[in-house]
Amino acid sequence: AQSVTQLGSHVSVSEGALVLLRCNYSSSVPPYLFWYVQYPNQGLQLLLKYTSAATLVKGINDFEAEFKKSETSFHLTKPSAHMSDAAEYFCAVSGSGSYIPTFGRGTSLIVHP
Amino acid sequence: DTGVSQNPRHKITKRGQNVTFRCDPISEHNRLYWYRQTLGQGPEFLTYFQNEAQLEKSRLLSDRFSAERPKGSFSTLEIQRTEQGDSAMYLCASSADRAGANVLTFGAGSRLTVL
After folding, report:
1. pLDDT at B1 exceeding the cut of 60
2. Can the peptide bond before residue A113 be classed as cis, meaning omega within 30 degrees of 0?
3. Is the pLDDT score of B98 beyond 70?
4. Rounded to an integer, what distance in angstroms lies between the CA atom of residue A9 and that of residue B113?
5. A28 secondary structure, DSSP code
6. B48 CA to chain A: closest CA distance, Å?
7. Which of A4, A44, A99 sits opposite B106 (nearest CB)?
8. Which residues of A touch B35 (CB under 8 A)?
9. What is the DSSP string of chain B?
10. How far apart are CA B62 and CA A83, in angstroms?
11. Does A104 contact chain B (CB < 8 Å)?
């Protein structure tokens, strides 16, 4: 069984501030982990993925995430928020059988000027 | 590569009517997924095809729901006798069949409103 918990349905930051979106996972096998972003009226797009090659994963638009097995976490960070980062962010886990991803409930990132 | 295409983008229907959604995946992708997304929730898995074979179905997929993928190309998701609880965004995604992390490419979704 696999699941994802995203802490905080909304995160609000000022433009230029650090972004931290939290994700904890549960998986009975070594996981693959993903962050997807969904802009209004668009499909989900892959930001980054963890595939066991490196614990610190860099994605698009200066986002990165660190896999911490001891904490079963895969938090997403960005050093400096832009207004264009305002979107819904989803953490997902897969890794067994058909590799069908299971998604978290999502975190809405709000960026203030 | 035009991405994953879903039609219609919006559907408003009355309770009890049947609706059908179509998904055209990326042409070289042999895996196709349907998810459902309601307000404030993440995508919930409904069903998965590898080529034309429907390999997994979620318990969310009641007997009023049926999905097909004839010839392993486009897919349709039909909901019979719609209920207000079926109102949601229906997402289609596709991926290539390769070992390792399974990265999904999503369409923009088909929003269903049942009155």
Report:
1. no
2. no
3. no
4. 24
5. S
6. 8
7. A44
8. 103
9. ----EEE-SEEEE-TT--EEEEEE--TT--EEEEEEE-TT---EEEEEEETTEEEEE-TTS-TTEEEE-GGGS-EEEEE-S--GGG-EEEEEEEE---SS----EE---EEEEE-
10. 41
11. yes
Q: How many angstroms separate the CA atoms of B40 and B97, rounded?
A: 31
- Over residues B46-58, the pLDDT tens digits come to 999 999 999 999 9
Instruction: Name the DSSP letter for residue A63.
Output: -
| A35-B88-B48 Cα angle (round to 5) | 60
CB-nearest to B42 from A49, A50, A103 is: A103
SS3 A106: coil
> Sorting pLDDT into bands at 50, 70 and 90, what band is A96?
low
Residues of A in contact with B109 (CB under 8 A): 43
Which chain B residue has its CA at the smallest distance from A90's CA? Answer: B42
Task: Please give the structure tokens belonging to residue B44.
Answer: 């919930």
- The answer to whether B94 and B1 have CB atoms below 8 angstroms apart is no
B5-55: pLDDT as tens digits: 999 999 999 999 999 999 999 998 999 999 999 988 999 999 999 999 999
Pair type for strands B5-7 and B10-13: unpaired
- Give the number of other Cβ atoms within 10 Å of residue A12's Cβ: 12
CA distance B43 to chain A (A): 6
- Calpha distance B26→B20 (Å, rounded): 20
